[in-house]
Amino acid sequence: MNNVNHALALRIQELLEEKKITRYKLAMESGIPHSTLKNIIHETVMDNLLSTTILIASGFGMTVSEFLDSPLFDEENLNI
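The structure assignment produced for this chain is given below.
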């Protein structure tokens, strides 16, 4: 089981590979600082805001619903 922060980091990594873009490009496209994105991926941020997740989804050219549409975020896979 994953916590939400770990699931978010995994989903970002998954989409970076799938879409063949760098963390830097995602940061530029989403409008969040590269350091913030790095901290999310390395799970040093303990309280990720929904607004940040929406910006990340937007940076991938997705809605937040599309971003969260992953088994990583299914309740049975999360330790909440």
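Interim note for the steering committee: The chain has one domain: 4-75. The mean pLDDT is 91.
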